[in-house]
């Protein structure tokens, strides 16, 4: 595998030369300002706060579009622009600037984040209409957008880490937004803790990079990776992967994502489907040169991706909670992207393309799920849905488009980008390529099954509603964003993939596509046909099982695979057995040692000082005569000391 | 026998010459002195109801003017001059003395604000000190609203004594300054409005023990005179290096150093000469306690530094072991006793004793860093302690309006009076030497100087003692902020503008000196010239000044 990047692609960055690009920091500053106004303004901003937040997100999006325009006006090799904001840290040789890197990769993310983010902001006006803390919710959403933009626009790992922690914070705050629900509070804590594990990996890898190269800025680091040892690069790559696993809910740090569905649904759509959870993929693609210098790390990335792809799909097949089923699907789809990112330059563009289309259709699916929940008194159990297609036509239609896109119906967005990944996997060659390829094909079949299951349980079959359910279509403020996302789910894939538009745009960063765009090959390759067949099988099996009136309202016992999948493949049990309980034991042991050992010594000293104090204060009799005597004694000591030392 | 062949030039006998006084350079002293004298005249001739306003204005203006004059003189002192002597070389004007005088005047002003504070027309002072406590006469005076405005001239004389104490250039002038400072304070201690017997007992004790210590001081002067044949610091210093008037006279010097040391150590209040401090601090009216704990301590250490650095600057090896013993005793014993104190004023008194021990480590250092460190420490501690006592005046018993000294009553104060408790918390953290407060920088400065002078064991004791003191300071903070309010919860007065200013001054100084000590250490505290800094103690030639240039 030749490195197409280290040689030339990353070599040059140019400084911003005025205009829109020089003020790229406005993209971050606007939502950050919105968050600050909403959080500091307090109740005064209740009435108009959400509109301010939307304005902030939208203007950030507009600025991103303008920046893209200016970027496209440049020659492809000049599309890496550094925007220096200010010097952040300077301690001796440790010198970090807060600089932004505007290049095709970062702009792709910026557009996705601000675009989908703005839509979800608008949707939330309707979804959170009856929540008394709506202003705080919008403040957090703005904060998230700002932090996510810091993450993707950073031109060095330190600033990236700043954004990384920022989105972690926003995610924590939003998962636990309904903190009065114990499950939400616990889920927020769980997400935070598991993410800390990944964060440590990222942090250590940044430290390693700094000690090795003396800088953490992307370009200088990538230019000198060839000079560093392969072992070191493997270590850095694996640590980066650990960070990516935490943020993107990949095995073995996947357990938090399903619980994170306790957060409000717009949060699930924006953070836990479309943007934040894809940060790990961004990290791997951005750090491409490091992984290319460490084939072992790349292999591990593909294995993690493949394993998560299957695990997420299996979990998605068994969950009755609509959001958790979709969360399993998210895991699985990010598994696709991770796998592609691990393939190296031939997979990067495919990974990013799938990431973008997934951002649209998965956000649309979540918003649809939110619309259903909104209509069904926040019921999440799909066994309590059924036959909703007639009462919620808009939701049904938009959800349906997203559904067709994700399962890979030809010429819809998901098909274009998933085919890209399948093709890249087989193209990588060798036995590994074959295995990975067939995993992605199998995944396509599983995707078709679990998504059809969701679709049929929700919108088809008999009505299994709770007695007090009175479903209705959502207001326009919610359905319009869903419609826009549905249009993206249908058409965006073709726009991005035909003639490799996105791949060519990304080429200065991730390398040019390996071969010409060939639609006929895409349609007729045996792997593509196999995926299509498996998809049809999956849909058909789901139709037989779930699109009828025999679906029980309570879940049947199920075989051991179903039980395991419901238990999220025992991920929580493993975490609890391996880490939580030993950790609690250690805590208890430490506390015991502190109580009896350390405190014993400390309180012993304190007790003896106190006893000495009680005795010494007896000298303070209150009688002037005894004070005078003490003074006389003291004078004698002073005289004797002076004489004794000098004359003896 | 001691030869009484007094040298011809130093005889302070009657001269026919009129004394040639530089009134301009003496003006900070003279202004305060004049205010005291005018205050006495005001007492004699002005109607009683108008005295309060005239006296407070007079005292504050005088102290303020004297402070400004001090600053002007700092600016007027030629840059290459180590200092000047005035009035037959009895008074010295150099940068350290001007610094000490400035600090004393600022602290006196802060204390004056507390002294002038009145609640419903009641000051902290008794209406008629001569009335027997609990008698009909006393009640009559209370009902008539009598006031002791003599307090102000007395304070003026005390402040004058403090100023002169740090500026004296010979032992006799210093002794006079000591008495001028002490006598008004003895009186002031007995003037508390509430718990008058307690206050009078404190005054009497202070007077008896102070007189006792003055006797030691005077006896020491006599011994040193016998050794050096002079009382001027420069002459004593010269004698220390040349060997004195007579062969084998060294015991005279040693006993003299020890006795003068006893007098000094009594004034700063180190173990075992500290017994008066808790009783007097507790019994005295709290504004006077604030003045004593800040101004008197600064003056006493200013004088002590001058005596030990200048007069005994050539005999460091002779007095250092003695001060080692006293410093260790002070830091250990006072810190341990403070642990079981239950009254806030007594606790602050013991705290003052421990701090005297810490500053003593800078005296032991006997180098330029020790001098600057002690100066910083004194200024920092002075403002913090004035602020702390100002807060004590605000917390009263609900039934009789006396100050609520019992610490159990302070529980939960952080909830009922958060600002007051937070201010006191800050002062306590500064006493404990926590970073970002002035106390940390001060401790660091004196300990650093002591280590540089080879007194590392002393510093180890100091740090351990700090740990013990931190315990009882933090315990009060915990009590205020994390304990349930006591049943006999005190009534917290709303600070008036006077007390509020003093507390604010304390908070501001504590934070400013803690967060930005650099400018103060560089510009405000006088620095010896770099090339002579190491040699200040050993090679002091221009002995009229604390700094050789």
Automatic annotation (TrEMBL), chain A:
One of its GO terms (cellular component) is endomembrane system. This is NADH:ubiquinone oxidoreductase subunit L. GO terms for molecular function: NADH dehydrogenase (ubiquinone) activity; NADH dehydrogenase activity. Gene3D superfamilies: 1.20.5.2700. The keyword rRNA processing does not apply. Keywords: Membrane, Transmembrane, Transmembrane helix. NCBIfam families: NDH_I_L, PRK06590.1. It is a multi-pass membrane protein. The keyword Zinc does not apply. It holds the Pfam family Proton_antipo_M. InterPro entries: NADHpl_OxRdtase_5_subgr, ND/Mrp_TM, NU5C-like, Proton_antipo_N. One of its GO terms (biological process) is electron transport coupled proton transport. It comes from the Bacteria. Residues 88-138 form the NADH-Ubiquinone oxidoreductase (complex I) chain 5 N-terminal domain. The chain crosses the membrane at residues 20-40, 52-72, 105-125, 137-154, 160-179, 200-222, 228-246, 267-285, 297-318, 334-353, 359-376, 396-416, 436-461, 482-507, 527-544, 627-647. Residues 154-440 form the NADH:quinone oxidoreductase/Mrp antiporter transmembrane domain. It is found in: Endomembrane system; Membrane. It comes from Thermobifida fusca TM51.
């Amino acid at each position: 595998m030749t490195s197409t990047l280290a040689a030339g692609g990353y070599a040059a960055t140019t400084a911003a030369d005025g205009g829109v690009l020089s003020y790229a920091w406005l993209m971050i500053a606007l939502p950050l300002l919105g968050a600050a106004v909403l959080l500091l303004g307090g109740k005064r901003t209740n009435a108009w706060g959400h509109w301010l937040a939307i304005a902030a997100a939208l203007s950030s999006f507009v600025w991103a579009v303008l920046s893209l325009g200016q970027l496209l006006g440049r020659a492809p090799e000049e599309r890496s622009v550094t925007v220096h904001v200010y010097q952040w840290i300077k301690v001796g040789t440790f010198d970090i600037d807060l600089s932004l890197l505007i290049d095709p990769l970062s702009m792709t993310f910026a557009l996705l984040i601000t675009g989908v983010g703005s839509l979800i902001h608008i949707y939330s006006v309707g979804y959170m209409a009856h929540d008394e803390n709506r202003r705080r919710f919008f403040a957090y959403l703005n904060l998230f957008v700002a932090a996510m933009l810091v993450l993707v626009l950073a031109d060095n790992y330190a600033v990236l880490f700043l954004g990384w922690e920022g989105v972690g914070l926003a995610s924590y705050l939003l998962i636990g937004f309904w903190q009065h629900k114990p499950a939400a509070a616990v889920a927020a804590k769980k997400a935070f803790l598991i993410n800390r594990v990944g964060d440590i990996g990222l942090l250590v890898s940044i430290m390693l990079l700094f000690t090795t190269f003396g800088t953490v800025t992307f370009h200088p680091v990538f230019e000198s990776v060839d000079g560093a040892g392969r072992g070191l690069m493997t270590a850095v790559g694996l640590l980066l992967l650990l960070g990516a696993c935490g943020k993107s809910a990949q095995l073995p740090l996947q357990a938090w994502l399903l619980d994170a569905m306790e957060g409000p649904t717009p949060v699930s759509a924006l953070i836990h489907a479309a943007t934040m959870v894809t940060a790990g993929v961004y990290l791997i693609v951005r750090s491409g040169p490091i992984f290319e210098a460490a084939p072992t790390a790349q292999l591990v990335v593909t294995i993690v991706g493949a394993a998560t792809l299957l695990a997420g799909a299996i979990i998605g097949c068994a969950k009755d909670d609509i959001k958790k089923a979709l969360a399993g699907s998210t895991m699985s789809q990010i598994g696709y992207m991770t796998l592609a990112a691990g393939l190296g330059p031939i997979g990067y563009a495919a990974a990013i393309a799938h990431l973008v289309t997934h951002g649209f259709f998965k956000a649309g699916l979540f918003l649809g799920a939110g619309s259903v929940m909104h209509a069904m008194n926040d019921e999440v159990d799909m066994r309590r849905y059924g036959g909703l297609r007639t009462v919620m036509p808009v939701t049904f239609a938009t959800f349906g488009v997203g559904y067709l896109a994700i399962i890979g119906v030809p010429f819809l967005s998901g098909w274009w980008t998933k085919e890209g990944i399948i093709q890249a996997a087989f193209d990588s060659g060798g036995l590994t390529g074959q295995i990975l390829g067939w995993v992605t094909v199998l995944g396509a079949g599983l995707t078709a099954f679990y998504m059809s299951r969701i679709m049929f349980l929700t919108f088809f079959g008999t009505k299994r509603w709770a007695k007090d359910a009175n479903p209705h279509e959502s207001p326009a403020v919610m359905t319009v964003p869903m419609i826009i996302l549905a249009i993206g789910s249908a058409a965006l894939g073709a726009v991005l993939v035909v003639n490799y538009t996105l791949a060519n745009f990304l080429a200065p960063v991730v390398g040019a596509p390996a071969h010409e765009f060939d639609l006929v090959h895409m349609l007729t390759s045996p792997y593509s046909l196999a995926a299509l067949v498996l998809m049809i099988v999956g849909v058909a099996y789901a139709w037989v099982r779930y699109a009828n009136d025999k679906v029980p309202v309570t879940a049947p016992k199920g075989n051991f695979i179903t039980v395991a999948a419901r238990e999220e493949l025992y991920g929580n049990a493993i975490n609890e057995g391996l880490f939580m309980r030993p950790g609690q034991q250690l805590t208890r042991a430490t506390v015991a040692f502190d109580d009896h050992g350390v405190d014993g010594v400390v309180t012993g000293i304190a007790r003896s000082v106190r006893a000495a104090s009680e005795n010494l204060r007896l000298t303070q009799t209150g009688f002037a005569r005894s004070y005078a005597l003490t003074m006389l004694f003291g004078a004698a000591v002073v005289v004797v000391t002076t004489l004794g030392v000098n004359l003896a | 026998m001691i030869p009484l062949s007094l040298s011809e030039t130093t005889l302070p006998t009657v001269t026919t010459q009129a004394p040639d006084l530089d009134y301009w350079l003496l003006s900070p002293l003279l202004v305060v002195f004049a205010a005291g004298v005018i205050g006495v005249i005001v007492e004699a001739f002005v109607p009683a109801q108008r005295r309060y306003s005239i006296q407070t204005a007079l005292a504050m203006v005088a102290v303020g003017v004297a402070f400004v004059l001090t600053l002007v003189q700092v600016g007027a002192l030629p840059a290459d001059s180590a200092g000047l002597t005035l009035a037959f070389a009895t008074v010295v004007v150099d940068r350290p003395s001007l610094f000490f005088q400035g600090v004393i005047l600022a602290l006196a002003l802060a204390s004056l604000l507390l002294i002038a504070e009145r609640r419903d027309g009641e000051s902290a002072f008794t209406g008629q000190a001569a009335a027997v406590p609990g008698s009909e006469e006393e009640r009559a005076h209370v009902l008539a609203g009598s006031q002791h405005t003599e307090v102000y001239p007395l304070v003026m004389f005390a402040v004058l004594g403090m100023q002169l104490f740090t500026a004296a250039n010979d032992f006799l002038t210093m002794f006079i300054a000591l008495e001028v400072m002490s006598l008004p304070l003895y009186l002031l201690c007995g003037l508390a409005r509430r718990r008058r017997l307690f206050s009078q007992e404190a005054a009497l004790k202070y007077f008896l023990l102070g007189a006792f210590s003055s006797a030691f001081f005077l006896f020491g002067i006599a011994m040193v005179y016998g050794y050096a044949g002079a009382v001027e610091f420069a002459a004593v210093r010269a004698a220390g290096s040349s060997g004195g008037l007579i062969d084998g006279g060294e015991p005279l010097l040693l006993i003299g150093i020890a006795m003068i040391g006893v007098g000094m150590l009594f004034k700063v209040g180190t173990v075992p000469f500290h017994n008066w401090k808790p009783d007097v601090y507790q019994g005295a009216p709290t504004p006077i306690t604030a003045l004593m704990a800040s101004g008197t301590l600064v003056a006493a250490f200013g004088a002590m530094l001058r005596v030990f650095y200048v007069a005994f600057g050539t005999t460091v090896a002779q007095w250092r072991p003695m001060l080692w013993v006293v410093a260790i005793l002070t830091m250990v014993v006072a810190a341990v006793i403070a642990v079981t104190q239950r009254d806030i004023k007594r606790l602050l008194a013991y705290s003052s004793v421990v701090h005297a021990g810490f500053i003593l480590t800078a005296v032991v250092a006997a180098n330029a860093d020790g001098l600057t460190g002690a100066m910083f420490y004194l200024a920092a501690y002075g403002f913090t302690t004035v602020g702390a006592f100002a807060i004590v005046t605000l917390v009263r018993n609900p039934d009789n309006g006396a100050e609520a000294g019992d610490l159990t009553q302070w529980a939960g104060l952080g909830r009922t009076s958060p600002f007051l408790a937070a201010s006191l918390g800050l002062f306590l953290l500064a006493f404990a030497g926590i970073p970002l407060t002035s106390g940390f920088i001060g401790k660091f400065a004196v300990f650093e100087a002591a280590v540089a002078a080879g007194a590392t064991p002393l510093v180890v004791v100091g740090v351990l003692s700090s740990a013990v003191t931190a315990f009882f300071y933090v315990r009060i903070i915990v009590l205020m902020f994390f304990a349930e309010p006591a049943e006999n919860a005190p009534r917290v007065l709303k600070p008036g503008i006077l007390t509020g200013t003093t507390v604010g001054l304390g908070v501001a100084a504590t934070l400013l000196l803690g967060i930005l000590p650099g400018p103060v250490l560089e510009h405000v505290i006088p620095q010896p010239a770099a090339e002579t800094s190491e040699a200040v103690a050993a090679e002091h030639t221009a002995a009229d000044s604390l700094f050789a240039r």
